[in-house]
Amino acid sequence: MMIREILTYPNPILRKKSHNVVKFDEELHTLLDDMYETMLWHSGVGLAAIQVGLPLNVLIINIPNEDELQDVSELIEAINPKITHKEGIQIFTEGCLSVPGFNEDVKRAQHVVVEYFDRFGTLKTMEAEEFLAVAWQHEMEHLEGHLFIEKLSIIKRKKFEKEWKRKLKEESKKA
Ligand code: CO
Hints:
Layout: H1 26-41, E1 46-48, E2 58-61, E3 76-87, E4 90-94, E5 104-108, E6 111-117, E7 123-129, H2 130-143, H3 154-174
Antiparallel strand pairs: 1-2, 2-3, 3-6, 4-5, 6-7
Bound molecules: cobalt (II) ion.
The site of cobalt (II) ion has 5 residues, from α2.
């Protein structure tokens, strides 16, 4: 397994729309394994393939359980996922490995029903609420070429852009 590079905002590749996986082969399994390693290495709870530069409808989610542990047995690997139902509203403080160090409140559905294929091409359905529902909606958005910062109010977005520019400038000085 290999830790892959995570693309960060404003890399234009992150705005690409992903397309469906056709072959559920070893290459896909390697990608999923690498994505898992990469996500854990960066202490993330979810990752979409586009974040490692591949415009494929592939995402993984592994949110911490009641014991605050990211149990691999609860890892979700979703290929060609679809949200088939959304209900309710919740506000949750989100972050993203492609926008490292930034967190902000985002409004999303409280409950979702999703359909996806696992790594072997078996169709699955799942209902998710609260944090898990947030993770699903956040990762699904990556597949459409969108980031959670696009959901911020104009004022918050402007503040973010200013802070982000400053951060990028400081990082380029260090490099
Ligand atoms: Co993200």
